[in-house]
Each structure stands twice: as structure tokens, then as C-alpha cells.
Amino acid sequence: MSQTSHGIGGLSYDAKKRPWPAEFNVFLALVILVGAFELIGRVFLGDSFLFNTRENVSGLFNEQRLQIIILQVSIVGIIAIGVTQVIICGGIDLSSGSIVGATAMIAMSFAQVATVNGNPNPKAMFINYGWTDLPVIVPLLVAIGCGLIAGLINGLLIAYTRIPPFIATLGMMVTARGIAKWWSKGQPISFPTDSFAAIGKGLMPVIIFISLAILFQLILTYTKYGKHCYAIGSNEDAARMSGIKIANHKVLVYAIAGILAAIAAVVLSSKNLTAQAGMGVMYELDAIAMAVIGGVSLSGGRGSIIGTVIGSLIFGVIISGFTFLRLDAYYQEMVKGVIIVGAVVLDQWRQRRRAIGA
Amino acid sequence: MSDIVLKTENLTKHYGGVHALQEANFELRKGEHVAIMGDNGAGKSTFVRQITGVEQRTSGKIWFDGREVNFAGPIEAREAGIETVFQNLALADDLDVPSNLFLGREKVLFNLGPFSILDRKAMRKATEAALVRTAVKIPNLSSTIRHMSGGQRQCVAIARTATFASKLIIMDEPTAALGVQETAQVENIIRTLKENGEPLILVSHNMRQVFDLVDRIVVFRRGRIVANLRKQDTDGNDIVAYITGAKTGQAELQAA
Lengths: 358, 256
Description:
The complex is a heterodimer of chains A (358) and B (256). Chain A is mostly helical. Chain A has helices at 22-45, 63-88, 96-109, 137-160, 165-183, 194-197, 204-222, 224-234, 236-241, 246-272, 283-293, 305-324, 329-357; strands at residues 10-11, 115-116, 119-120, 189-190, 274-275. Chain A has a two-stranded antiparallel sheet. In chain A, strands 4-5 form a two-stranded antiparallel ribbon. The radius of gyration of chain A is 23 Å and the shape is globular. Chain B has 256 residues and is α/β, with parallel strands linked by helices. Chain B has one domain: Rossmann fold. Chain B is built from eight helices and 13 strands. Chain B starts with a strand and ends in a 12-residue tail after the last helix. Chain A binds chain B through residues 1, 5-14, 17-19, 219, 222-225, 227-228, 230-231, 233-235, 237-239, 241-244, 249, 252, 301-302, 354, 358, and chain B through 74-75, 78-79, 86, 88-95, 99, 103-106, 108, 112, 114-118, 120, 128, 131-144, 146-149, 184, 188, 191-192. Strand 1 (10-11) of chain A pairs parallel with strand 9 (137-138) of chain B, so a sheet runs across the interface.
């Protein structure tokens, strides 16, 4: 028995064997995409996508465009954060868009002013009860409560009845949309208080999105909760054998996804100064697409919030780029579909190549 | 009596009408490595599943670490100090080595319930120490299990059982799916465990491996223990005779 084969163990660290972070590929895709739009713009339109070309505005970059890109993805981006941790945990959440709709309707009813231009607010839901001009904390708590309840129902169904997450959240998607329509019999709910309207004003959605993204990136990387998300998504049986309480964890994951959808609802209805029953339609699919484009594996266990944020930027750049090239909005949707499928195909291909290579 | 780690008395398991395990009387002493051999369906795995709480026995008694025990599940058995390397490994493919070692029992810096902050440095250090102690060689701690060979995965699984200063390690065919070199690596780890005085139950089909590694061989046949022999009192032909049923009857150890 020689010393080399037995007795000494430990590590021989090889920097070359360090895995290449998947987020880097996604970021590269973003850079290439921006570069493509820049090139097409310069060649065919004589205009720049990224840089400032107007004389009357100072600055290197076209700040207006950059703002629009990030502003239009930040609300769905908040949902995508919740969806990302659900997918990492091996699940899926189709209900987030409808939770946005229902939550926006219910929360907005508690954020309305009593009088508009001296007349009683015609849209006020609870004016007869005197529930108007309430402090902003009331609609906020109502919203978080709505998201929490919806998320808890999703989580409890998935954890304890063992029905597939696809079905449980599909049910919630239809039901929550029904609630959104029933709440005011289809009428929009408008005229929020100034303090409620301040939540989604200007660049606030971006600030909220980025703060939540940083918070959840840290949670997923540095806490037990995050570690268990990856473990369950990676090998649920192994996680169970290791003593992780799978059911509790899943309930928590879906509850958090519900709360994040509710936060998105508050920001959206505050930004638009109104809530409508049709709010957030298709947001769940956009959020899933952002995560998938960002390298979150639909089979669970892999991905990160950073990836999803970059994925959301890719989303924003595509939409903004098509506008920049003056192409119809119809093309956007067609291309969006292609990109979602393409991202999943790429992920599958990457996995298979890895399996052969290992 | 005090140096007996594990003892079973008339341990029996019936699956409906199938008598998978009948009146198994088994003892394991401190620091002892015992092999369990037998044909497929002889009751080896059934025996392991009763001890580790994966299944509930039909009748019989189990003593572990001086107490009579009734494990409701594998987690209880693990908490009592029985670590098992299962055939299907039970590792999370997308986590790195320290995360797998500490899965479900993470070291934390601040306790915030489910959102407790992980002590990643301490877990990494403990992992390195465990790998040195078990002589497991892993090229890169930060790489995920997905990127590892079958042998490396098996080594991680074994290092995990050895990390937690368990009172008993059970390995169910740890080298069944491994190549020659990888098998040698796993066997070296088992030797290291022996030197450290950690008791082990090894379920194996590999005659050479068994004679290389363990002190005592227990043979199962048709759900019964048919032989319980010290390594030096027997040989391969003898064991094969018991496994196939050419030799029958309870071969007992002389009182030690």
C-alpha cells in the first residue's frame, strides 16, 4: 500500500477546471444583441441604438432609450425573481400574471381618494364605508396579504396533494383572473392617493426591481433557503434523505413567489394610476421566458437571479430594438416566441453536451 | 456487551406472503468491519433497510449504541448515528462538494430560521478536513457533482458519511458501478475508516474485495443468515458454498 494511493487525501486545485459561469454566456448574448441592433441601426437607419446622436442632449449614451428598456422590464422582472426561485426548486408558476391582476384590483380599492376635483370619487369601491384616503401601508399590506394567500394555496396544493405545479398554478391562474374580474364587475379602479402613486413614479420600479434582485441573489447564494432550493430542484429524493423538509420549503417558495407578484401588482397599478381586471395577462409567461433566457434550467437546480436580470434586459433590448428599427409590434411577439424556444433548446443542448463530456 | 454497536434479535420482514428476512440475529462490535454477502434476493438489502429505518420490520428487535431503537425513518436513524451510502448515492447534482456534505445540516453564521446565513468558510474547511481524513481526492471542491466521474461521486458520498463522526457506516455495494481505479480509491477510503476505528457494514458481491477489507463475513440465503465467519476461518470456496446453498446450516463463530 503506497503513500500515493492511500493515506493522503484532500485537494489538488486546478483553476482550469473551474466551471465557466453560465451567466457569462447570457451576458455575452446580451452584448451581441445590442451590438447587432447598433450595427443594423448604423447601416440601415444611420442612427445609433445605444449612443446619443442628438446635438441638443448631452451624454455619451442614449439615456432615454436605456431608461425605457429597463423600465419596461422591471415590473415583469419583479415577478421573474419569484418565478426564478420556483423554477430552481423544480417547479413552475403560471399564476403570477393573474395574481398581479387580482392583487392590483383589490389593493387599489384600498388606495383610493375620496374626492376628485371636488366631486366624490366616482370609482371608489369603499366610499360608502369611508375607506378612502387610507395611509399607504393599508393597500400595501392588503396586496402582500393577497399575494401571500394565493402563493400559500399554490404551495399547499403542490406540497400536500402532490399534484404537478403546472396544474396547481394553472388553476390559480384561472381563479385569480376570475377574482380580478369579479371584484369590480369588470370596472377599472382608479384615482389612487398621492402616496400610493409615488410607489411606481419615475424610476421607482427600476429601483424596486434592482433592490429585490440583489436581495434574492444574496438569499439564494448565502442562506439555507437558497441552498435547499437548488438541492430540491437538483435531486428531490436526495434532499428528502438529507432531512430537508420538502413540503415546508415548497410552501415557502410559492408563498414568496406570490408576494413578489403582489409587489409587482402594486408597482404596476401605482405607475398606471389605475387597476384593471386584465392587468398582467401573459406576464407569467414573460417572467418564465426571462428566467429561461437567463439560463435558469426548467428541469430545476440551475440558474441565478443575476441570470434572470440579464435575461430580462435581453427581453427589454429586443422590444426596444424592434421599436428602434420601426418594426411592427407583431414581429416582437413572433420573435419573442422563437427566442423562448431557442433558449430552452440551447439549455437542453448544453446539458447533453455536458453529460457526454463529463 | 458494552462494545457492541449494533445488535439485531430475530429481525423479520415479510412483504405480504414473501418472507424476505427471517429471524436474523446479527452483532457488530466497535471498530469492526463486517461484510454481508449473498445472492440477489437473499435478504441483504432488506436487512439494511430495516436497520436504517427505510422500512418498518415485521418483528424482532434492534439495539443500537446500547439502546433498543425503533427508527420511524432514515432521518431518525441518521440522527442516531447510522450513516448509509445508498446505491443511488443521494447527492444533489447541481451543488458543489461542501454543499452536498452538509446538505440538511448546514453550518450557519446567523440563525434566521429558513433564511439562516450559511457559514460557507467553515463548511469548506470542514470538507477539506473530511477529505483528508478519508483520503478522498477531489480535484475541485467548487465544481458541482454533475461534473464528476462515478468514482468521485461515490467518494463524495462516502466522505459525507464519514464527516459526521457517525457511530456506524453502512455501504450498499459502493463499487458496483465503478471501474478498476475508482474501486481501488473507494477501497482505500474503507481502509482509512478501518484505521480510524469506525465500524462498517459492507454489502458486496465482490469476493476479493470482501476478503481484502473486512474482519467478518455474514452470508444471507433465502432471507436467513446461514453463515457468520471470521475471515481467517474461511475462504472463497467456503463462502460460495454457503451463498449457493451447497453448504447449509448455521455456521457460528466460536465464542470470542
